[in-house]
Amino acid sequence: MERAASVNADPVPLPDSNGYCTQWRNWTGFWLLGLCNNFAYVVMLSAAHDILKHQASGNTTASTSATLSLDFQGGNSSNSSRYDCNPVSTAAVLLADILPTLVIKLSAPFVIHKLPYGFRVLFCAVMAATSFLLVSFSSAVWMSILGVIFASISAGLGELSFLSLTVFFSRDVLGGWGSGTGGAGVAGALIYSGLTQVGLSPQITLLIMLVVPFAMLISYFLLLVPPPSLPQWKIRETEYAAVDSDERRQLMDGSEEEEQEKSTPEDRPLGPLTFTEKLHIIKGLRGFVVPLGLVYFAEYFINQGMMELLYFPNFFLSHAEQYRWYQTLYQVGVLVSRSSLCCVKIRKLWALSALQVVNAVLLLFAVRYQFLPNAWLVFTIVLYEGLLGGAAYVNTFYFISKETEDRQREFAMAAASVGDSLGIALAGLAAFPVHKYFCSL
C-alpha cells in the first residue's frame, strides 16, 4: 500500500523551474536587445567613412569629408604639429552621431507613452535596417550622413524605450541590458573589422549586418516572456507600468516585497502623470543624471579630444594601431563593468564621476607636457576609464529602478537616459577647441 501510494502521488516539481526558465529568457532577451540596439550606432561611423572614401575618388568635397575618418594613415596630415593631428577633430563625427539621439531623449519621454512598445521596437528595427541600406547603397555624401542619422535615431529611441520596458520585468534584466550594450562596442568593432579584413567590401559587410535588426525583432517578440500588463499593441489608460499586484509579487525578491507591503494601493495615487509631476520627477533625478552626464563628459572628452593626441612615435605600434587599441581596450572595460551588476553594485555615483574627471585631467596634462613614458600606461588608463563609465551607466539605472515609486518608474527610466547623451554632446563641443589648440603647437 505504501508503495502504491508513492507511485500514485504527484511528482515533486522542480523548484521554480518555469520561473527560472522565464527569468533566463528575459535576461538573455534584454542582453540581445542591448547588443542589437547599439550595434548600428557603433558600426555606422567607420562604415560610413569607408563608403565616403570610396566615393571620394576624384571628388574634392568627398575627400574633405573623408578626413573625418577615425583611422590615421601615419605622418602628419594637417601641419607640422608634434601631435600628428588630423585636420578635423574626431569630435565632429561624434556630434553627427549623438545629436539626433540627444534630441530624441530630450523630447520623447513626454510623448512616447502614446506609442505602444511593439510599434516602438518595429520602428527601431526599420530605422536600423534603413541605415545599413542607405550607407551601403549610397551614391552621394548626403545619403551616407542620412544613414548615420537613422542609426542614431534607432539607438536613441531604442535605449529610452528598452530602459522603460525593464520596469515590467524583474530588476535583474537591467544587468542583461547593460551587458549587451557593452558587448555591442566590442562586437561591432571586431565583426566589422574582421569582415572587411578578410576581403569583403564595406557595402557587402553592411548588407550582412542586416541580420542585426531582425535579431532585435526575434529577441523582443519571441524570446522575451512579457507580463500581461505590458502594452504591446495598444495604448494603456495610464502612463506608467501598471503591473498588477500578483505580477509584481512574482518579480520582487523578499526584501522588496516587504517594502511594497508597507505601501498599500490606497496610498499610491492612480491616473496618468501630469506635466508638473513629470517635471518634479526630472528634478528628483538630478542626483542620478548629473553624475552620469559628468562621467560621460569626461569619458568622451578623453576619447574624442585626447586619444588622437596620445601618440608615441617610438612605440612598436603605429599611430593608427595605437588609436585602435585605445578604443578596443576602452570598449573591453565598458563590457566588463556593464556586466558586473550581478556581482557588485555601487551607489556612490559621484565617486565614479570624480574618478573619471581625474582621468580626463591627467590625460589632458599628459598631452600637454608629454610626461607619460609609453603607450602601455595609456592602455591601462583607458581600460580603467571604460570600467568607470560602464559601472556608472548600469548602477545609475539600477538604483533609479530600485528607489523610484512604481507609478513614476517608467517615465524616470526614460527621462534619465538623457544624461549620457548630453554629456557626450558637450564633450564633443569641448573637444574642438582643445584639438585646435594642441594641433597649433
TrEMBL record:
Q: Which InterPro entries match?
A: Battenin_disease_Cln3 (IPR003492), Battenin_disease_Cln3_subgr (IPR018460), MFS_trans_sf (IPR036259)
Membrane topology qualifier: Multi-pass membrane protein
**Encoded by which gene?**
CLN3
Any idea what this protein is called?
Battenin
Would the keyword Membrane be found if you checked this record's keyword annotation?
Answer: yes
Classify the source by domain of life. Answer: Eukaryota
Transmembrane stretches, start-end:
30-48, 117-135, 141-162, 174-192, 204-225, 349-369, 375-399, 411-432
Q: Where in the cell is it found?
A: Late endosome; Lysosome membrane
Species in which this protein is naturally found: Sparus aurata
